[in-house]
């Protein structure tokens, strides 16, 4: 199991930007597909983006497409989620997760993102 650590969350006004980071200390993230998820109070967990291991293909949910960008920096062993034009409804705890197969089996502890009006 890979230990993942998220960072970069915080409080931002609507329309602003944040960049989340997902790192691993003992494993190379480029061996895994990495996904970003979020969960708001009272709502189900939502996968907002992922980046594949081999071809670097990226996927986005409809709710964030065009505003969020996922990327990986293998030299820094980090996957980023650049979030622009943040909306109130983006408020949630954001998690990164890793998988080699079809299921995500390693998760970080999460970082809080709060968007204010």
Largest sheet, if any?
7 strands, mixed
- Categorize the overall geometry: globular
Q: Write down the secondary-structure element order.
A: EEEEEEEEEEE
Count up the helices.
0
Mean pLDDT: 95
For the termini, the CA-CA separation is 39 Å
Low-pLDDT runs of 5+ residues are none
* Alpha-beta content class: mainly beta
Radius of gyration: 13 Å
What percent of residues are in strands?
A: over 45%
Q: Share of helix among residues?
A: under 10%
How many strands appear in the DSSP assignment?
Answer: 11
How does this model look, in words?
With 117 residues, this protein is an all-beta fold. Helix content is 0%, strand content 50%. The strands form two sheets. Strands 2, 4, 5, 6, 9, 10 and 11 form a seven-stranded mixed sheet that branches.
Question: Keywords, please?
Answer:
single chain, 117 residues, mainly beta, seven-stranded mixed β-sheet, four-stranded antiparallel β-sheet
Helices and strands, with pairings:
Layout: E1 4-7, E2 10-13, E3 18-24, E4 33-39, E5 46-51, E6 58-60, E7 68-73, E8 78-83, E9 92-99, E10 106-107, E11 111-116
Parallel strand pairs: 2-11
Antiparallel strand pairs: 1-3, 3-8, 4-5, 4-9, 5-6, 7-8, 9-10, 9-11
Nutshell version of this structure?
The protein is mainly β.
